[in-house]
Amino acid sequence: xxxxxxxxxxxxxxxxxxxxxxxxxxxxxxxxxxxxxxxxxxxxxxxxxxxxxxxxxxxxxxxxxxxxxxxxxxxxxxxxxxxxxxxxxxxxxxxxxxxxxxxxxxxxxxxxxxxxxxxxxxxxxxxxxxxxxxxxxxxxxxxxxxxxxxxxxxxxxxxxxxxxxxxxxxxxxxxxxxxxxxxxxxxxxxxxxxxxxxxxxxxxxxxxxxxxxxxxxxxxxxxxxxxxxxxxxxxxxxxxxxxxxxxxxxxxxxxxxxxxxxxxxxxxxxxxxxxxxxxxxxxxxxxxxxxxxxxxxxxxxxxxxxxxxxxxxxxxxxxxxxxxxxxxxxxxxxxxxxxxxxxxxxxxxxxxxxxxxxxxxxxx
Length: 364
Description:
Layout: H1 2-26, H2 32-55, H3 65-92, H4 98-121, E1 139-145, H5 149-165, E2 170-176, H6 183-190, E3 196-200, H7 207-217, E4 222-225, H8 237-245, E5 251-255, E6 261-263, H9 267-280, E7 294-297, H10 313-321, E8 325-329, E9 331-333, H11 344-362
Parallel strand pairs: 1-2, 1-4, 2-3, 5-8, 6-9
Antiparallel strand pairs: 4-7, 5-7
Helix pairs in contact: 1-2, 2-3, 3-4, 5-6
C-alpha cells in the first residue's frame, strides 16, 4: 500500500528530525534554530531516499536523482509552511486548541505531500508501447444474460449481420446465470446457425463475473461486451471495432454522453446515470464511464487483477488498463422485452466498487 509506505517514511523522518535536533543542540552546542534547520533538511533527505528506494521503487528512473530531490525538498518545505499557516489559522480564527489545530494541519500536509510528490516527483508514465492485434483478428463478444430468452433470437442475427457486412470475424459467448425462462436453452439453439458458445452457470452470479468467465473461453484477440436487451445496437459494433483494428485505440467505448444519446429513459433513471458518472469522473477521462458497451484488446488485461463483484466491469477496465481509449457515440435504446436487472443491491455494489477503485487509484 503506497500511501501507508509514505506515511511510515514520514514517521521515520519525524524520528530522525527529533534525534538530530536534540543531538545538535545538546551535544554539538548549536543554536536550536540552526539545529532545527539542519535537522529538517537531513530528515527530508532521508525521507527522499526511503521513498525513492521503497515507496516509489516501481516508478520510472529516467528523471535525474538531483531533479527529483529538488522537487521533493521544495514540496516538503512548502508543506512545512502550509503546516504553520494552518496551525495559526485554526488556532487564531477558529478558536481550536493548538494541539488539535496541529493534528488537523499535519493530516492536511500529509495528503499535500503524498499527492503532490506522487504527481510531480515520482509521476506515473503510461507505457509508450502498445500491443497491436493481427491484421484480421477474431472478435469475441461476451453477452451476460439472465431471463433474456425473447431477445436472444433477435440480437444474434443482427450481430452476425453487422460483423459479416464489414468482413469482421466474430464469435458470441453467452454467459447465462441459470435463467428460469430458458435463455440458456434458447442460446444453445443458436449454435446450429452461428458461431456461438454458451456457458451456463449454476446461479445468478453477477455481470462482472460473467464477463470474466466468458473471457476464459474467448478465442478472440479483441473482446467486446454488450447487453442482450437490444439497448446496445449490434449495428454499432463495426464502428467500435474499427479503431482497435487500425491501432488507433486500445479500448473503445460506446458512449451516450460523447455525442451519443439516450431514448426511452424516465427522468429518474437519467438522473441516477448522470450522478453515477459524476462519482466516477475523477477515476477516468471517459465521459460515459458507466457504459456497458465496449471493446478492448484482450492482451491489455495480461497481469491485471480484476474484481468480479458488482456490474460495472467496464469502469474497472478503463481505470486499470491505462491505455488509449476512444469513445464512439451511439443511441441507447431502452429494452423492449424483459425487465431491467438493476436495483438497490446493484447500486450498493457500485458504490463499494467505486471505493475500491479510488483506493487503487490513490495507491497506484
